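Two proteins were folded this term; both appear here.
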Amino acid sequence: MNEAELQAYSDAWNNHDIEAVMSFMTEDCIFDTGGGTERYGTRYEGFDEVKARFIAVWTDIPDVQFINARHFASGDRGCSEWTFTGTRPDGTRLEMDGCDLFDFQDGKIRVKNSYIKKVS
């Protein structure tokens, strides 16, 4: 993958287009969230489990966007930096900086490892 493909992936996220998002993922993909009870966050494994988690993000925060994106790719690794914005169901506005570290396999994302700043 390259920077243009990572931007297309980001655009698919912002369009809430699950089919487009998942077209960038391998069948055995892994998503490690930015938080959770384990050192790596919470892990979702496999195409269907990752897809369900991504849909849940849009369900939980319907206006979620990843803005100010910057991307880097080299070989089988990549990074996207972004600002996460959205509104919780209770009306609380969210805005946090973060990044995704990617492992690529056969031109697709195999691992999406998210890191996000904690806002107190």
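Next, the second protein.
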Amino acid sequence: MKTICIVGQKNAGKTTFISGFIHWLTFQNYKVGSIKFSPHRHNLDEEGKDSYKHRKSGALKSAFITPKGYALFEETADISTSKAFILSQYQDLDIVIIEGNLSLQGKKLEVFEYNTENRQPYALENTSIHALISSSFQQASCPIIHPSNFTEILAFAESIS
């Protein structure tokens, strides 16, 4: 399994790029998974529901299973343990796209498609970013790849892993 970490600023086009990239990878017959990291706190289980009550009663892990899928809830402050567990569930896939933030370890590709608030790409100063995915930004010390050039993006991601 290969992991590709995509980062970028808020509203820079990460999700739009990732959705298109996943669609293209699937069309190329890759088995693809995705993981979204968020620095914000989110309620993953609705207060008052049975699975929420199980967890709040002391269950270390709580699962919710339906005919259409399942969710596993576990409260932890250890992101590295969470990431390792989640990745272990993806072992049958070819590629996992991780939409993360700069604090994630590993080599990253930055999407910078929309320059809101006159920001500059992280890639100008952050050495953990190995390429900039952009059609609008033209100068960086790392390679700049057009966001529609999925073949080149995949080849580059494989070359840095």
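The domain at 2-41+79-150 is CATH 3.40.50.300 (Rossmann fold). The first strand starts at residue 2 and ends at 7. These notes refer to the second protein only.
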